[in-house]
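Consider the tokenized backbone below.
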């Protein structure tokens, strides 16, 4: 982990444990209980389901992605194509089996309805979602258990798989990749993985998806277009590395954080292959990866999902440094009376005061009044913008006000406002001002 310039180590430690779960932690001993296959009501009762077993590195992300394909009924993580010892996670990860050609591969058994999705479509997604030219590895996952393999149940499936390899090889070659290493062979036996491996991403919502795709697609076009990163070389920037395929952690980060972000530091999405010109030290094979960049150079990077409170703690250190604003926002400090920012904000034009980190509107100038206290005072906040918390510090009973979007400390509310209204006593240093648009009717 790198440290933000002028920010103490303690500031970054506020982020806490980032939930990057190791394969070897918390290994359970419970046996797998088969997942129930739920067939859509509109699926014909006589529909003939088919299945194929695919290995493309770690089975966690592959299971989730493949299961999301329309027409796929179920996807189950498991082991196959090994011999000589027990097919279990604790065995295949042993050091002695890392280079063992007889080690079991991590695979996913995909059950699908051929009337809704063709096998060729599943295999195209499979090839495009990983790097089939790598031998016994995918990214940082190294060992024979991570080999690229297709295990078929019929000569027809084998024929389709080999045909697609013939089609895909020249496309990869033209893009600068080597020979496809994917093995195609009949399935001997599939061993479902332990219960805790099934639907792993759903059970562990704060992690990341490995993304080892090449960006080369079967239509002959590279999925990843070249982009202009010149704007990312100036000032503070937030870059989120997105997945080319389905990544539940990426969607969760967008839903919980990015889609609501309105801050003044630009937030930009890129794929891992679109970082030209930037100086990045964090490995970029996981999605999402959140990068905090200053003048084109990474200051801090995190692989995996960040909850809003974690994101804004890092954001606070990145944007505010060791300033008074940081102390107010995260240490519940208080501005000095009649501070410089108060003097600037006490007589602004018509507009709104926003959260300094998220950009969410907090207070309106139309509700501002001069309390004579030396702190910004309002009779009310913007609807649904703050949360209230009991504060019994310093031997007093007060009601603390925090920003709902980021959780940062804003100030307190008292019952001595004008005309019997409340007085929201707010620290100016954690706010930014946004003039109201002339055509706004609000």
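A designed sequence for it:
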């Amino acid at each position: 982990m790198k440290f933000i310039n002028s920010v103490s180590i303690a500031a970054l430690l506020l982020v806490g444990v980032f939930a990057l779960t190791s394969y070897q932690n918390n290994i359970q001993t419970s046996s797998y209980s088969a997942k129930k296959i739920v067939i859509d009501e509109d699926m014909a009762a006589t529909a003939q389901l088919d299945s194929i077993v695919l290995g493309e590195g770690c089975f966690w992300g592959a299971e989730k992605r493949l299961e999301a394909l329309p027409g796929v009924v179920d996807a189950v993580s498991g082991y196959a194509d090994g011999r000589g010892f027990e097919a279990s996670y604790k065995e295949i990860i042993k050091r002695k089996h890392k280079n063992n050609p007889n080690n079991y591969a991590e695979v996913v058994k995909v059950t699908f309805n051929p009337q809704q999705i063709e096998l060729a479509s599943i295999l195209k997604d499979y090839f495009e979602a990983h790097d089939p030219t790598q031998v016994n590895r995918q990214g940082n996952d190294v060992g024979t258990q991570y080999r690229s393999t297709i295990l078929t149940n019929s000569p027809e499936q084998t024929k389709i798989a080999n045909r697609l390899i013939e089609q895909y090889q020249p496309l990869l070659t033209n893009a600068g990749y080597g020979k496809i290493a994917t093995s195609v062979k009949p399935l001997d036996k599939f061993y479902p993985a332990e219960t805790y491996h099934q639907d792993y991403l759903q059970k562990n919502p704060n992690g990341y998806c490995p993304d080892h795709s090449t960006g080369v697609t079967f239509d002959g076009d590279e999925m990843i277009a070249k982009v202009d990163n010149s704007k990312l070389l100036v000032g503070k920037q937030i870059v989120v590395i997105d997945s080319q395929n389905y990544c539940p952690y990426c969607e969760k980060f967008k839903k919980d954080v990015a889609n609501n972000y309105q801050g003044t530091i630009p937030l930009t999405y890129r794929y891992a292959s679109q970082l030209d010109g930037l100086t990045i030290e964090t490995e970029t094979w996981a999605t999402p990866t959140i990068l905090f960049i200053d003048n084109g150079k990474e200051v801090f990077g995190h692989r995996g999902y960040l909850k809003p409170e974690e994101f804004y703690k890092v954001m606070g250190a990145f944007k505010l440094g060791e300033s008074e604003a940081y102390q107010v926002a995260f240490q519940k400090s208080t501005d000095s009376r009649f501070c410089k920012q108060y003097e600037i904000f006490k007589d602004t034009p018509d507009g709104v005061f926003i959260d300094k980190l998220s950009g969410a509107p907090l207070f309106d100038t139309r509700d501002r009044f001069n309390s004579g206290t030396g702190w910004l005072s309002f009779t009310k906040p913007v609807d649904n913008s703050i949360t209230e918390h009991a504060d019994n510090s310093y031997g007093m009973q007060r009601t603390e006000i925090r920003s709902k979007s980021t959780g940062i400390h804003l100030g307190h509310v008292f019952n001595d406002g004008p005309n019997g209204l409340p007085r929201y006593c707010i620290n100016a240093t954690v706010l930014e001002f946004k003039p109201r648009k002339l055509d706004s009717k609000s």
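The two ends are 45 Å apart (CA to CA).
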